[in-house]
Design a protein that fits this description.
Helix content: 10-25%
Distance between the termini: 93 Å
Strand order of the largest sheet: 2-11-10-5-6-7
Number of helices: 3
CATH topology of the largest domain: Immunoglobulin-like
CATH architecture of the largest domain: Sandwich
Order of helices and strands: HHEEEEEEEEEEEEEEH
Bound molecules: 2-acetamido-2-deoxy-beta-D-glucopyranose
CATH superfamily of the largest domain: Immunoglobulins
Oligomer: single chain
Largest sheet: 6 strands, mixed
Structural class: alpha+beta
Radius of gyration: 26 Å
Length: about 190
């Protein structure tokens, strides 16, 4: 008897809870809502697991939202599409297969960051996060460098300066020039 009554009550209440009131509240929030991604490029090395940080501001739960991560220029451009609580994988670019995740527990706090595992040089580029239901999108840049053990070469330049060249097979070369006297004083101090 009690059971039947509560079911009837629930059925009567549901339309009020999920109906007009709810949608009106969301749409006024949507106007002020921002999707904020890291403005700083995310720098990683080959093989790293990286997080591309994006969040809703002010904090609103993204639990029920479809979160779409893309990299324009790729075909297919989809990196990770999170819908109905899971990865919608039929649209995903194969080179990201099994290499991405969103933080399902964090969606409640508006954290829609995506993670890419074992970064590759080819992952470098501009990533877009979009949330179609609130018509927001933002982008974040990923830079992937490859660095092997650095090689330090000491060569003398014809201007009487000592040239230390630190070189890696990867993405940067740093050259330090020092006069011999400076090096001398460091050696004997
Ligand atoms: C999508 O995921 C399902 C289950 O995890 C898997 O069986 C299927 O092969 C996947 N499809 C693609 C295109 O990755
Ligand atoms: C996926 O992305 C890569 C670049 O990471 C691209 O070369 C490739 O053509 C895309 N498509 C498929 C089906 O892998
Ligand atoms: C989002 O979640 C990831 C993974 O837990 C965490 O590293 C990151 O700091 C979170 N971002 C924010 C804004 O809370």
């Amino acid at each position: 008897m009690f059971f039947t009554t509560s079911v009837v009550l629930l059925v009567l209440l549901v339309p009020f809870c999920s109906g007009n009131f709810h949608t009106r509240r969301i749409s006024s929030e949507t106007a002020l809502l921002k999707l904020v991604c890291s403005r700083q490029p995310i720098v990683a090395l080959v093989g790293d697991d990286v997080i591309l940080p994006c969040r809703l501001d002010p904090v609103v739960s993204a639990d029920s939202m479809t979160v779409v991560w893309t990299r324009p220029g790729l075909d297919p451009k989809y990196i990770h599409v999170h819908q109905d609580g899971q990865l919608l994988n039929r649209s995903q670019n194969l080179s990201y297969y099994f290499r991405t995740r969103v933080f399902v527990d964090e969606l409640t706090y508006g954290n829609v960051s995506v993670s890419i595992f074992k970064a590759r040089v080819s992952d470098e580029g501009q990533y877009w996060c979009s949330i179609p239901s609130i018509q927001k999108e933002a982008s974040v840049q990923l830079i992937v460098g490859s660095v092997s053990a650095p090689v330090v070469e000491v060569t003398s330049s014809n201007r009487g300066k000592m040239v230390l060249q630190c070189e890696s097979a990867g993405w940067f070369t740093v050259t330090i020039e020092q006069t011999p006297t400076q090096i001398h004083s460091e050696t004997w101090s």
